[in-house]
Amino acid sequence: MEGGRYVEAVSDATFTLAAGECLALVGESGCGKSVLASALLGLLPANAETAGSARLADGLDVLAADERTLARTVRGRRVGLVPQSPAAHLTPVRTIRSHLEETVRELAGRTRARTRARTRGGAALRDAARAAAERAAFPATHLDRYPHELSGGLAQRAATALALVGDAPLLLADEPTTGLDRDLVHRTVDELRSHTREAGRALLMITHDLAAAERIADTVAVMYAGRIVEITPAAAFFGASGPRHPYARGLLDALPERAFTPVPGAPPELGALPPGCAFAARCARADATCRAQRPPLLEGVACHHA
Ligand SMILES: Nc1ncnc2c1ncn2[C@@H]1O[C@H](COP(=O)(O)OP(=O)(O)O)[C@@H](O)[C@H]1O
Ligand SMILES: [Mg+2]
Nearest Cα to 42, choosing from 58, 64, 23? Predict the structure, then answer.
């Protein structure tokens, strides 16, 4: 619901993500990427309606699971998250070290009393926390800082460290490179890639940084106005043939190292989607069919002219 209206924020989002693979979900701001991530964590607002299913490797359907199951066994355990606004997800009164150590402790099912700082368990816990910080390029010198003492880029890296230490088999990383310099973007992306590939975890990487997507993804899904309009192997997407959907081609052409031409116009309001293809108003190839009929996703692309 948006302003009392019913909004179809995400629909037709069909994909499979295998262990060891990274799917990059790209698309303009407001197209529904974070809503999709929230759905996969069972974190949609209480008044949200869902249809279909979202099955984890063990068969659990997250969309049908009850809150207790989600809280105890899904969030942070089977599905990890690097949230889009990390600062909002950190507890203001706890240091980053405390966040990391608490996560390790919780996952090990241990209580604070049984893991005193000076015991061997305590040392292992501190090491795990430090190692995760290091992997996320979070400086050890800042571990005892509180969230409000961190810049946006540092809070981002703290959130990535927390997700890495959490070690869930499926990780959702929602714009995890926001506010980072190019070299840190590369470092974060490479770390997430090895986290995924080497240990057979799955990664859904949400990003509007196509260069980051190219570096990490096995598959690219392009979202437009709440729908996946193209899903294609990264090698094809970034290769000579390129994507097939005009919007996906437009995203690539907007890159400075390519044509540097932004897609003209703006996406439609989700509450007032046109009857046909949602991209028709911005598409040079659109005709009467496009304006009348919504193209289904066939062989990885939703376009009447692909
Ligand atoms: N709780 C909500 N109530 C109403 N509309 C929402 C809610 N959450 C998201 N939306 C709408 O859903 C659309 C997609 O949002 P979002 O998934 O955050 O986009 P993205 O992550 O791709 O930038 C936006 O138009 C947003 O306004
Ligand atoms: Mg978002």
Answer: 64
CATH number at residue 193: 3.40.50.300
Range of the structural domain that residue 260 is part of = 243-305
Ligand 2 ion local residues (Cβ < 5 A): 33-34, 84
Judgement on whether residues 165 and 296 belong to the same structural domain of the protein: no
- Report pLDDT digits (tens) over 220-264: 999 999 999 999 999 999 999 999 999 999 999 999 989 899 999
User: Measuring from each residue's beta carbon to the nearest atom of ligand 1, which residues come in under 6 Å?
Assistant: 1-2, 7, 9, 27, 29-35, 45, 270
**83-133: pLDDT as tens digits:** 999 988 999 999 999 999 999 888 877 545 444 544 557 888 899 999 999
Whether residue 3 is contained in a domain is answered as: no
Ligand 1 mean position, distance from CA 277 (Å): 20
Mean pLDDT for 170-193 is 95
Distance from C-alpha of 228 to C-alpha of 2, rounded to nearest angstrom: 21
Read off the amino acid at residue 22.
C
Show Cβ contacts of residue 130 under 8 Å, excluding neighbours closer than 6 positions: 140, 143
Q: For residue 9, tell me if it sits in a domain.
A: no
Count of domains forming the chain: 2
- Closest ligand 1 atom to residue 44 Cα is 1
Atom of ligand 1 nearest to the CA of 175: 21
